Amino acid sequence: MAVLNKWLDWVTKIAYLNILWIAFSIAGLVVFGLFPALTATFTVARNWVTGKSDLPVFRTFWNAYKQEFVKSNLLGYVLSIIGYILYLDFVFLTISSNAYVSMLTIPFVLIASIFVLSALYVFPTFVYYEMKLFQVIKNAFFIMIMNPLPTITMVIGVGSIIIILWTFQGLAIFFSTSLLAVVIMLAAQRAFKKVNEKQQLYAEQTASHVIK
Questions:
Q1: pTM score > 0.70 for this model?
Q2: CA–CA dist 30, 24 (Å, integer)
Q3: Which residues have C-beta within 8 Å of that of residue 81, sequence separation ≥ 6?
Q4: CA–CA dist 87, 101 (Å, integer)
Q5: Domain containing 7: what range?
């Protein structure tokens, strides 16, 4: 019974977080509210996966939404511009009949894949580390490259949730972005932990060389 109550508690929390994401995205007229609400969602998810599950959801969400309103919009629209440029490249490749242009398909797929995989780490990195915006994007890329297993886990998790939500579309209002944020943050947390361990090991080795 205790296990069932705990499971229902988490279901309720995730659903509540998703409602907050929708409400605050709309409150910001979507154009200005989407990315701050996304940042706030990842902030709550970060607290959950790091064991701070007792923190008040609304207060944590609202504080992150307010504090990161400008920076999260800048970050989100930088990613959106890059994504739109890649979309235009994709359209150009699909409508072009030039044989030389079609040779660019493989490089495009590679670049687009790197962008998508790096983008999965951007908001987790943003809410986990104190960095400037372009440092967030740069470090998200390097963390993705350095941690293939968490990245694969992240992709499988995200893909599975998308398939389930596509099959049962009525669940999306309660279990879309919030659930994706939790799954992404769980995998990202593993990657961050490995990065921190490598940094600590490097610092210890450097210190030992200095002492010698």
A1: yes
A2: 8
A3: none
A4: 15
A5: 2-211
